[in-house]
Design goal:
Layout: H1 8-12, H2 16-29, H3 35-49, E1 53-57, H4 60-70, E2 78-81, H5 88-95, E3 99-102, H6 114-120, E4 125-129, H7 140-147, E5 153-155, E6 163-164, E7 167-168, E8 175-179, E9 193-197, H8 200-209, H9 231-240, H10 244-265, E10 287-290, H11 294-303, H12 333-341, E11 342-345, H13 352-369
Parallel strand pairs: 2-3, 2-4, 5-8
Antiparallel strand pairs: 1-9, 6-7, 8-9, 10-11
Length: 370
């Protein structure tokens, strides 16, 4: 059985007629930049997330960038974040001339450790960027308690629709940032992103910044960028959004089936640890196990045509581009150990019971023999 890490075609095929109709609608009206498609999508997804304002932007990276710009993050500022994330989380801070301050993660959730955040706050701290990694929200209540008046910018690129007992990701901080990269739970047909907030003034600032800081056109009070969401992407996302919760339910079923299979295997924790589900609202953008046989298991699965991936093989504080920050191996040991042990298994909605069982059996069989 050949099982890819993700099968975008299986998700899009049943919606092909609706997607083509959305394309034809945009082709017909010819409003390709912002316009009614983007405005309608912003209203619909704001209602879905339970936020006052949603602003469509060009990518998840640009969502982070423009959110930090809206907070006037710049040279001389420090922004606290996690080293265990996609590069954009730290890269956007540096692009603005600010300094990323990396603090370690919790070993069970891979999310920021609030106690370590508290210890890292200093006089130059301008904001905190928690990442809701793999589809599960951070402990935002604890982070707000240590942040005080500092704004929390949620990197929710992997967590659209994820929820804690307080509400959905993107509605729990000053600003929320999302990605619609095709591999995400709600993916478009290219790059796309979103910024959310309940602060009307911040929302307006993001809208102005996404269009070169112009308001009205050709009059620039701010220096922004070209961060606009394409109308075509918005139209396609509008077709897919109503199906998102059903896809999340399927991911949770697949994850629960993995959990049961791995629990039944009875392997020691160092050999196999499934992901911890703290909140029922986990949306499993990835299903990530830990194993001390990660690289060997990765090779074994690849030989058997089972897709898997490493998120992430090298923490941000050890990346060459951040060498000037002075971090050394051993500084953030939880993140460093995770980078050696994590492996994401297929969990996409269309995988089905047979697919989950085949992957689980292959994993358990190999680890038992190891």
């Amino acid at each position: 059985m050949t099982i890819p890490m993700l099968d975008v075609g299986a998700q899009n095929a049943p919606l092909a007629d609706e997607l083509r109709a959305a394309f034809d609608r945009v082709l017909s009206h010819g409003q390709f930049i912002l316009g009614p498609e983007v405005a309608a999508f912003e209203r619909e997804i704001a209602a879905y997330l339970g936020v006052g304002h949603a602003v469509g932007v060009s990518s998840g990276t640009d969502a982070l960038l423009v959110a930090l710009m809206a907070l006037d993050v710049g040279p001389g500022d420090e922004v606290i974040t996690t080293p265990f994330s996609f590069f954009a989380t730290g890269g956007c801070i540096s692009r603005l001339g600010a300094t990323p301050v990396f603090v370690d993660i919790e070993p069970t959730t891979f999310n920021l450790d609030p106690a370590k955040v508290a210890a890292a706050i200093g006089p130059k701290t301008k904001a905190i960027v928690p990442v809701h990694l793999f589809g599960q929200t951070c402990d935002m209540r604890a982070l707000r308690a240590v942040a005080g008046e500092l704004p929390l910018v949620e990197d929710a690129a992997q967590a659209l629709g994820a929820a804690s007992d307080e509400g959905k990701a993107g509605a729990l901080g000053a600003l929320g940032c999302f990605s619609f990269f095709p591999s995400k739970n709600l993916g478009c047909f290219g790059d796309g992103g979103l910024v959310t907030t309940n602060d009307a003034a911040l929302a307006e600032r993001v809208r102005v910044l996404r269009a070169h800081g112009a308001k009205p056109k050709y009059f620039h009070a701010l220096i922004g960028g070209n961060f606009r969401l394409d109308a075509l992407q918005a139209a396609l996302l509008r077709v897919k959004l109503p199906h998102l919760d059903a896809w999340h339910d399927a991911r949770r079923r697949n994850a629960a089936r993995y959990d049961a299979a791995f629990a039944a295997a009875g392997l020691p924790a160092e050999r196999l640890t499934p992901p911890l589900r703290v909140y029922e609202g986990h949306v499993y953008n990835q299903y990530v196990i830990r194993t001390d046989r990660r690289d060997a298991l990765l090779a074994h699965l690849g030989e058997r045509d089972i897709g898997c991936a490493i998120y992430y093989p090298l923490p941000l504080h050890l990346q060459g581009c951040f060498a000037s920050l002075g971090y050394r191996e051993g500084d953030l040991p939880v993140s460093e150990r995770a980078a050696h042990e994590v492996l994401a298994l297929p969990v996409y909605p269309e995988l089905g019971d047979a697919g989950v069982d085949h992957v689980a059996e292959t994993v358990v069989d190999f680890l038992r023999r190891s």
